[in-house]
Every structure is written in C-alpha cells, then in structure tokens.
Design goal:
Number of helices: 11
Oligomer: single chain
Strand content: 15-25%
Low-confidence stretches: 4-9
Distance between the termini: 38 Å
Helix content: 25-40%
Mean pLDDT: 91
Order of helices and strands: EEHHHEHEHEEHEHHHHEHE
Number of strands: 9
C-alpha cells in the first residue's frame, strides 16, 4: 500500500553519460552493475522474501528513529528524495510524509519490489556508480547502507554528488569504528559470538543460514572497521558541505542535537568496550555516527 501521494511515474534525471538504463517488467529501472562479492551478498539477502520482510518489520521502525531523523531533516514533503541502499523501504515506511519523488536505489531486486509497493520509485543500481545527473535532489539518504558497500568514500562522494545547493545528505546507522575496536578478551568473545547467541543469548539467535548470509553483507561492520569523523570531513568538506556529526547508541531521538548519546541497546556492547579499554559512556563508544551535511547554496 502506498503511504502517501508520491508520484507513481516521475521523470527521473538519469545521466546521458551513463550506460543504457532500461525498465523491466516489474517497473524497476535497471542500470548495468558490475557484480562483486558484496553486491552479490546484498542482492541475495535482501531479495529473500522472508529475510527482507523480517528486516522491514524489525529495523529502524520505531518512534525514536523517526524523531531523530525529523529533528535533523525537517519535513521532506514535496521534496525530491533519494534513498541509497533503500532495501525493502524501511526509511520511508518509518518517516512517512509526502515527498514529491521518493527514489529508492538498491542492488537487490526483491527488496526494490517491496519498496515499490509502499511508494518508492525503484532503481536497481550500484551505489558506487549512480546513474543520475548531479545536483538534483533535495535530500539524499544513506541509512544503514554505507557499511554494506565495499568503498565507503566512493559511495559517500557519489551520494554527495546528487545533492542540490542547499540540500541535505544524511547518513545514519553505520557502526562507528572507535566503538567497535575490540581488543583481547572482547575480540575473542566477538569471534565466538554465534555459538554464544545460540546457547546463552537465545533472543539474539536467528537461523544459521540467514545469519551467515547477513554477515556477508556487513562489509565494514566488525572490530577495527566502520565510519569515522575523518571519513565524513575528508570526503565532504571539499565538496562544499557543512557537516554536523552526532554519535548515538540508536536509542535517542531529537535529543541527539543536545549531545545525548542514549543508553546502549544491550549490555554486551558495554562489556566488550570495557574489556577493550573503551569508556562506554564516551562519544567514541557510541555505536553509530550520524552525519548531517548541508551543501552550500553556491555551487
């Protein structure tokens, strides 16, 4: 069911310099993609009807998430929005509203079919090589998507390229490297986490095939990896963006703008950080690092 009056057949600003783009029988715009292990893993996982549905129902679908995004974004009504790595459509399903155009980009055709059912205009394309002209979007979003991509700086730069003067680029729900820099005993427990989940933390256990397939999609979500403040500043400042960074623990809404980190969603994170010499109450220990970047009005 469509959430609101998003245009059902907008004219998309595809780049004439890009390879030929076609529309398939499911109404999905398809750009040529050069397959890679990461792209293949994401395509398999998010095209699986049961796994994609579970993700849609469970992830980023709470009032706190919506409150956080609206507090930094304002209304996106009557705006052109590009949701890169949209999956089955969690961002729009959570925030609602009435964008003029809601473009969803993903490498998983099955997920794009689900997103189209709630109002997205679906585009099958690689986030490293987006088939659009520059500077057309009011808001470009990367929610829980950047760490699924092999080359995060390239994807971030491509997303920034689409933002019009005065527009916003919002990145959220990627692991902050400093929070996940487990050492020693914490790193050992992390490597053993799957049997621990199975036998001792059963609320965290899911089917082994689903878990292992999902892990293949998490390219930059493991100890010693993730996003950093430097990634955002070095990629975006030279492109004319003013950047605000908000570390958080995924449990805080509009208070993020007052520097509130929120409580960790599970005690195991704090334990791993303490064992690694990380202060679990510090900004560096916040699980995610949200970036809100506004492009200069002069381009």
């Amino acid at each position: 069911m469509v959430l609101s009056a998003v245009s059902s057949s907008p004219t998309l600003p595809f780049s004439s310099a890009h390879a030929a783009i076609t529309k398939n029988s499911d109404g999905i715009w398809v750009a040529p993609i050069e397959a890679s292990p990461a792209i293949q893993a994401n395509s398999v996982y998010f095209s699986h009807p049961e796994w994609a549905k579970s993700y849609f129902d469970a992830c980023h679908r709470d009032p706190v998430f919506r409150d956080r995004w609206l507090s930094v974004m304002g209304s996106w009504d009557n705006k052109v929005v590009v949701d890169i790595g949209c999956g089955p459509g969690n961002l729009y399903a959570s925030i609602g509203g009435s964008p003029r155009t809601m473009i969803g980009v993903d490498v998983a055709e099955g997920a794009l079919k689900m997103a189209a059912q709630i109002g997205y205009t679906p585009v099958l394309a690689d986030a490293h090589d987006l088939p659009f002209v520059s500077g057309f979007a009011d808001i470009v979003a990367l929610n829980a998507a950047l760490h699924h991509c092999e080359d995060m700086p390239t994807v971030l730069a491509e997303a920034a390229r689409l933002v019009k003067p005065g527009g916003l680029l919002i990145v959220d729900h990627d692991p902050q490297r400093s929070a996940w820099n487990y050492q020693g005993l914490a790193l050992m427990f992390y490597k053993m986490r799957l049997p621990i989940y199975r036998f001792f933390l059963r609320s965290l256990h899911i089917d082994s095939e689903e878990r292992l397939t999902a892990l293949k999609t998490e390219i930059h979500h493991h100890p010693g990896d993730g996003v950093t403040a430097e990634l955002f500043t070095q990629t975006l400042q030279s492109k004319g963006f003013q950047i605000r960074l908000f570390p958080h623990n995924q449990t805080v809404g509009a208070e993020i703008q007052q520097g509130v980190l929120g409580k960790s969603p599970h005690w195991r994170y704090g334990l791993g950080q303490r064992l690694s010499g990380i202060d679990p109450l510090s900004p560096d220990a916040a699980l995610s690092l949200m970036c809100v970047a506004q492009k200069s009005q002069q381009d």
